[in-house]
Specification:
Blueprint: E1 2-8, H1 13-22, E2 29-35, E3 42-46, E4 49-53, E5 56-65, H2 70-81, E6 90-95
Antiparallel strand pairs: 1-5, 1-6, 2-5, 3-4
Helix pairs in contact: 1-2
Length: 112
């Protein structure tokens, strides 16, 4: 099993959710996060005063999948999240050692 973590722009969440739903992804976890990469934040004006926003608000999507579905899910996220501008986000893929459904005790792929 694999765990996909995608850091994306807020306004792309609905497109990605619909795209993943269309390919049969049964579930995902969504978290609002803040951070910076090459963007290094930005500045905003509020009541005539300029404020530095060091951490840019983003959304993190987490999906657990089988090895066979991995590339399809990644391709869907990239196609739906891409704007071509700096700050589109990142995708991280890691090996998932175990998954356990608390209610039933099922393990592995059955738990997902």
């Amino acid at each position: 099993m694999k765990k996909i973590e995608a850091i994306i722009r807020h306004f792309k969440l609905e497109d990605i959710k619909n795209g993943l739903n269309d390919i049969g992804v049964a579930g995902m976890t969504v978290t609002e996060v803040k951070g910076f990469g090459r963007q290094k934040g930005h500045t905003e004006m509020y009541r005539g005063t300029e404020y530095a926003i060091d951490f840019v608000p983003k959304v993190k999507i987490e999906v657990v999948c089988s090895e066979g579905a991995l590339q399809t899910i990644i391709d869907t996220i990239v196609s739906k999240a891409q704007t071509g501008q700096m700050g589109d986000g990142k995708i991280f893929v890691s090996e998932l050692a175990e998954a356990i459904r608390i209610r039933t005790g099922e393990k592995g792929a059955d738990a997902v």
